[in-house]
Amino acid sequence: MHDISSSKQRPICSIVSLFSFLLVLSVSTFSVHAIESDSIDENIEEPLLSTVTMDVDDLLTQMSMATNTLNYQSTLIVYRPGYEPIPYLWKHGIKDGQSVELLNELNGPNARIVRFGNQVSFLNPDMPAHSLQQSHIHGPFAHNLIRNPELISEAYEVILVGKSRSAGKEAWQLRIVSRDNSRYHYILWMDAQSHLPLKLNTLNVKGELIEQVQATNLQISETLDADFAQLEQSGMPQIMHINPPKAFSLNWAINRLPVGMKKVKRDIHRLSITDDVVEYVLLSDGMVDVSVYLQKASFAQPDDVLFTKDAVTFLSRVNDALQVSVIGKIPPATAQRILQMIESVDASATVNP
Amino acid sequence: MSDKFEQLSAWVDGEQSTTQVDDVKTDVQLQQKWQDYHLVGDTLRGDEILLTDKSLLESIADALDDEPTVLAPNPNKSKIIPIWSNVVSLAKQSSQFAVAASVAAVMILGVQNYNTEVSQPFTTAPTSGPQGGLAPVSLSQSRTIQTPEQQMNERQAVLEQRKRINALLVDHQQQIRLQAAIENVNEPKIEQVKPE
After folding, report:
1. What is the ipTM of this complex?
2. Strand pairing report for A277-284 and A119-124
3. Domain span at residue A285?
4. Pair A119, A252: CB distance under 8 Å
5. How many domains does chain A have?
6. Which of A241, A280, A291 has the CB atom closest to B185's CB atom?
7. In this predicted model, what pLDDT tens digit does every residue of B44-90 receive, in sequence order?
8. Which of A241, A289, A305 sits opposite B126 (nearest CB)?
9. B176/A138 touch (CB, cutoff 8 Å), yes or no
10. Is-contact A350 A255, C-beta < 8 A?
């Protein structure tokens, strides 16, 4: 009996509860609407303000200023999926009016690269110390991006994503996107205060991470670092001058290149390991350098060799006893396209450099 | 005595200890232990070990020589709990039989696999994966049954290809490194190359 009476009461209960629920719902949605309509008026101006004050070109200019003029030191970790992370110590300062820089690999043999102005010295226990005349050290961060951003503008578009946090600092996040989508993409984090780079991700076409440079700390100081105070330019090895290439002509050319990629160098040289003579062209788009080799092949290779190691793509094809190889930090598809664009040209028509 | 070593061990591990540097300096016994503890620590951590002192190796060898060879099992153990020991040994035996049987089965399977494997034509082109560089040549690439000469030739071919690929990769790195130098030193030269 008890059961029946309670079951009769149930529908009434549920109807009441449904009504009350609807009431609450309608009130709450109404109040949300009210809040939204209030906040819209306030928010309209804010994003506009930030886009006006923060221009991408401004940020890049400030970054190149900062990397070239500040006294700073940073620990960088270079990570490639599947490989061990490599830690580096990176220091920069201004000594006697010129820019000095130090890059030191923290693991393994104590390999150091020191730059005084345009003199770069390689101090590596594995090879004799030597100096070259160069404007920069090939460090973990793409040097043109952080020093001469205008040199990458032809091949890449830089987009400001917004603010985030990296290495414990507030950071601007920038996307560096290839204009014809034929190169890897990059995401850069830049310290919002000092405008120094904090992190750089390299992504493949699928958006997967293939290389990451991450600063774990960044210190900016007023005074020159003690390491630089000790180092003297006179103590560095003499600058080695590279002989200019002799007159030669290549009877091949790459007739179409990806957007923003240029021929930087052409020569004929010997490979240091096998002593093979190669005809060589170096391409660059400011961010990445791509080598194209042409050499005689005394062996058969029915299939193309294609692999990626340390984010570097290697592609080689043997055709008519000639081996053509394309090497660089570019997607395999782009390497293939460059290889296909190689054509033989009349040797007499080419200009000797 | 043992407390002295205990304290030394704690000191070596960087824990709180009463041992001082001067204690070790004066005590030859402690010095010996100090070296041993560090060696043990290095081994456990998997660090590279540099044996500068042969005395440890010699003492281990001596200890092994002195160790009497046990030919018969100790009869005392089975006397303590006779029933259980028999049960255990039975269980042990059966498990050993099981292990032996499975090993035999795996061997038979393995042999069958090995023999039925289709001999594929060898491809010199590794088309995927990070295979370049200084990676050691894998023997698994030539698993089909071949004459030793063929195997030698193939291994040689793979080695040579690795060497060629490596030479190009190394040269690429060198060229990238040298690039900036030429940009600066031979600025007019590069201008002549570009228009082409």
Report:
1. 0.75
2. unpaired
3. 252-349
4. no
5. 2
6. A241
7. 766 655 555 556 667 777 888 877 776 666 655 555 555 555 555 55
8. A305
9. yes
10. no
